[in-house]
Design brief:
CATH class: Mainly Beta
Shape: elongated
Mean pLDDT: 90
Distance between the termini: 73 Å
Low-confidence stretches: 1-25
Number of strands: 23
CATH superfamily: Outer membrane protein transport protein (OMPP1/FadL/TodX)
Strand content: over 45%
Radius of gyration: 24 Å
CATH topology: Porin
Length: about 425
């Protein structure tokens, strides 16, 4: 039974609080913060002519009348895992449980002087989650992960001339996360992994501070150039873990497991997540009827190299897990056609790299490079009010673990996502 205790400690140290941070990546870095912008493939940093500019390029509010925008996106994602040898084996297949996510966005802009404008935005820069069946082969890695991040983002924008403006702002992230997974230990009587319990990890909302800056220049002949930067934001999470024991039918084995795992208790665990910086460079041209924009977005995921976990009451279970994320880029292209003063059409495309190296691909984040196409419409409801509608389809490249998964859970993930959103824009 000494062997069972050693295996138990190793299993807990490898899994208890590691999974939530493993779920962060390009797949959970959201840009659905305005329906018209998303319909343009997310290429909006040099256009930035409605209140959603507070996310895409806050310098744009210096050229706008006061107003507000609010909306929501509905996101569905399907993911299938096809197993490979040795575990869970060829022929094994499982589908992620269907969910609908609804990141929100709201913005308000106003004037202080004719040249100095201010605004505040609230949106979800990171989020979503994964939910797998409770009895699937990867249940010891994860069953369910849920992450919510809100960004409260006030900005000042100053128009240096009729053709150039700059902006600066503060980002306050407010976030919580939770994870549910099974606990597996080798049963010395069967020499097989036994499901001895389940752990649910959760944190209250925690906060972290960052900053942003931007510029927007109108170069003439309908051409504009924009750039923005959002700093990294570090959040220190302190959560609780609740444990439930499952009987295995071996009383002495169950007793040893119970002596090592704090069933019925809620021990504290801490970790730190450093959300990446984001840089954007955008170029646009707008004529009387047509407009086109291209954006390049870079995210600094390389700061997320490892994840330290501290369990103060159970130091044997503290650990550091290597993640090895890499900086990645997204390329976005949007085309707009103004059919009439009351109806504008948007079309877009994007190519998004993934920051997740192959050895970090797990059911927590089956992330991969993805391509997307989008379409949308902006409809005038009145002289001052518009309704924006945008749809985006994302196809992820099939992502194999290539036989190097550190948890030995080998196979290929196949993922697609559908996103539809609505934004109401009103100008005073």
């Amino acid at each position: 039974m000494r062997k069972a205790r050693v295996v138990l400690l190793a299993a807990l140290a490898a899994c208890l609080l590691l999974a939530p941070a493993s779920s962060f990546g390009a797949g959970f870095a959201l840009f659905e913060h305005g329906a018209r912008a998303v319909a343009l493939g997310g290429a909006f940093g040099a256009t930035a002519d409605d209140p959603t500019a507070l996310y895409f390029n806050p310098a744009g509010i210096a050229f706008q009348k006061a107003g507000y925008a609010m909306g929501v996106y509905f996101i569905t994602e399907t993911s299938t895992f096809d197993g490979a040898n040795p575990y869970p084996g060829e022929g094994y297949s499982v589908d992620m449980t269907s969910q609908i996510f609804y990141p929100v966005h709201a913005y308000y802009t106003s004037e202080i002087t004719s040249d100095l404008h201010w605004g505040i935005g609230i949106f979800n820069p990171f989020g979503l989650g994964t939910w797998w069946p409770s009895d699937y082969a990867g249940k010891y890695l994860t069953k369910r992960v849920d992450l919510k991040v809100f960004d409260f983002n006030p900005n000042l924008s100053y128009k240096l001339s009729d053709a150039f403006a700059v902006a600066v702002g503060v980002d306050y992230f407010y976030s919580n996360l939770s994870l549910t997974r099974s606990i597996g230990v080798i049963n010395p009587y069967t020499q097989q992994v036994a499901e001895v319990g389940q752990v649910h990890l959760y944190t209250p909302y925690e906060g972290g501070w960052g900053w942003n800056a931007a510029f927007l220049g109108k170069l003439g002949s309908g051409v504009s150039l924009g750039g923005s930067y959002r700093s990294h934001v570090k959040i220190n999470y302190e959560g609780k873990a609740s444990f439930t024991q499952f009987e295995t039918g071996y009383a002495d084995f169950d007793a040893i497991v119970a002596s090592q795992i704090p069933f019925g208790q809620e021990p504290t665990g801490t970790t730190t997540v450093d959300y990446p910086w984001e840089g954007r460079l955008a170029l646009a041209w707008h004529g009387e009827k047509w407009g086109v924009e291209a954006d390049w977005v870079k995210m600094g995921w390389s700061s997320f190299k490892e994840l330290p976990i501290t369990l103060p009451d159970y130091p044997d279970l503290s650990s550091v897990r290597y993640e090895g994320y890499q900086d990645c880029s997204t390329y976005r292209l949007g085309v707009e056609y103004k059919h009439s003063p009351d109806i504008w059409w948007q079309f877009g495309a994007l190519y998004d790299e993934t920051p997740v190296p192959v050895e970090s691909v797990t059911p927590l984040l089956p992330d991969a490079e993805r391509k997307g196409i989008s379409i949308g419409a902006t409809v005038a409801l009145s002289a001052k009010t518009q309704l924006q509608i945008g749809y985006l389809y994302l196809k992820f490249s099939d992502r194999s673990t290539e036989g190097v998964n550190p948890d030995g859970y080998e196979g290929t993930y196949k993922t697609t996502a559908n996103l539809i959103g609505f934004t109401l824009v009103h100008r005073f």
